[in-house]
């Protein structure tokens, strides 16, 4: 497994298991455990997913069967907008730890910037407090655009190590990617397979034939070639195994560029500039 290095010197596996929209229960626990047994070392959840307890159970089961320690894993969860503001962040963090049955997180993220800039800044100060007091190994953000990150840099001291955003062949976010690279903030993709929609794209299928891999493996490998961290979601054992089996081939520059050229600026998620947590 390849790692990426943060600007603070810490590292993170380049592929992890995402559990967005995975219902709390046996299926979630089994998916997490199966992932760990099959080489995954990064698991990404969030308070709002309402599955942290099952994720925690899966982590313990996976560690036991893989015969690894907690320090071998990289666990991420996220702060929801309802828990923004002074006095709320540490409580929310501790609640996530309790549900996951862990002593610490490797990465804690602000899940969305929200539409109240001052509240966002205040909340990041609380995240800094967690980090500076060694309660969490790394802090970062989700779904932040350039203007959000600029405001953070002007008003706060600790730079996010990562920005997890929607990124797939129909939404390559090249301007944001260049911005993050210039500031040594890692870019991470959620929903890299676009809820499986991208797997029917003709270009993706053509390249899959060229490299004798599946369309999903091509898209995940494309993420890696672009230098991103990625967290494809699956609860199917075979697909969990397939999604991490991407380190025995590479894409040519021409193939990467063909996929980059599929961009349509098409989102399947909410617009970060407008989302306030309400449906």
UniProtKB/TrEMBL annotation:
Domain of life: Bacteria
Family the UniProt entry places it in: Belongs to the aldo/keto reductase family.
Binding residue positions for substrate: 111
InterPro entries referenced in this protein's UniProt entry, alphabetically: AKR (IPR020471), Aldo/ket_reductase_CS (IPR018170), NAD(P)_OxRdtase_dom_sf (IPR036812), NADP_OxRdtase_dom (IPR023210)
Keyword terms, alphabetized: NADP, Oxidoreductase
Cited Pfam families: Aldo_ket_red
Residues at the site labelled Lowers pKa of active site Tyr: 78
Residues at the catalytic site: 49
UniProt-recorded name of the protein: Aldo/keto reductase
Residue ranges of domain NADP-dependent oxidoreductase in the record: 15-263
Taxonomic lineage: Bacteria, Bacillati, Bacillota, Bacilli, Bacillales
Any one GO molecular-function label of the UniProt entry: oxidoreductase activity, acting on the CH-OH group of donors, NAD or NADP as acceptor
């Amino acid at each position: 497994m390849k790692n990426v290095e943060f600007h603070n010197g810490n590292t993170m596996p380049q592929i992890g298991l995402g559990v967005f929209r995975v219902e709390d229960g046996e299926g979630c626990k089994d998916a997490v455990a199966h992932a760990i047994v099959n080489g995954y070392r990064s698991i990404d959840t969030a308070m709002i997913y309402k599955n942290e307890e099952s994720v925690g159970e899966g982590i313990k089961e996976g560690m036991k069967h893989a015969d690894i320690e907690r320090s071998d894993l990289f666990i991420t969860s996220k702060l929801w907008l309802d828990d923004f503001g002074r006095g709320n962040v540490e409580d929310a963090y501790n609640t996530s730890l309790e549900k996951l049955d862990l002593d610490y997180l490797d990465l804690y993220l602000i899940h969305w910037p929200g539409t109240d800039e001052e509240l966002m800044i205040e909340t990041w100060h609380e995240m800094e407090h967690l980090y500076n007091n060694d309660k969490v190994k790394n802090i970062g953000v989700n779904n932040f655009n350039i203007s959000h990150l600029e405001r953070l840099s002007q008003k706060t001291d600790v730079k996010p190590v990562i920005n997890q955003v929607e990124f797939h062949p129909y939404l390559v976010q090249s301007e944001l990617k260049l911005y993050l690279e210039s500031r040594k903030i890692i870019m991470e993709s959620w929903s890299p397979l676009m809820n499986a929609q991208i797997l029917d794209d003709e270009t993706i299928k053509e390249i899959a034939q060229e490299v004798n891999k599946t369309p999903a493996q091509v898209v995940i490998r494309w993420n890696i070639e672009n230098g991103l961290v990625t967290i494809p979601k699956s609860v199917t054992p075979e697909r969990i195994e397939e999604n991490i089996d991407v380190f025995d081939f590479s894409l040519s520059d021409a193939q990467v560029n063909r996929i980059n050229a599929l961009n349509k600026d098409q989102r399947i998620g909410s617009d970060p500039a407008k989302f306030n947590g309400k449906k």
